[in-house]
Amino acid sequence: MIYLGEAVCSKRRATKVGDWLEMAKSLAGSGKQIVLSTLALVQASSELGELKRYVENGEFLIEASDLGVVNMCAERKLPFVAGHALNCYNAVTLKILLKQGMMRWCMPVELSRDWLVNLLNQCDELGIRNQF
């Protein structure tokens, strides 16, 4: 599985959406599963247009690093990966994201192993642990 895209800084735009999509198609052609990563902090309307292009790519899974992208995917009934930049710290939030189409969750980097163990126990209690 390969993640492609700019998730941190919109100022690093040397590689455009079309370029990422071309790379994704090339890699997918050699048997790789591709996930397109999106910005964690959307600051301009031009960035919203880019996010829409990612979401509407028609071929590749999206890593949603912003709740706006989660909503775009949910509106279109598209599956997505909940990125590590989403503030998702409990099982109730994961359950909501599952209802919106989440198929995988990337744990926020600031969470500890103990937090993860507790969160997975919460997921067991809600019956959702094996759904993502």
TrEMBL record:
Protein name: Putative peptidase
Domain of life: Bacteria
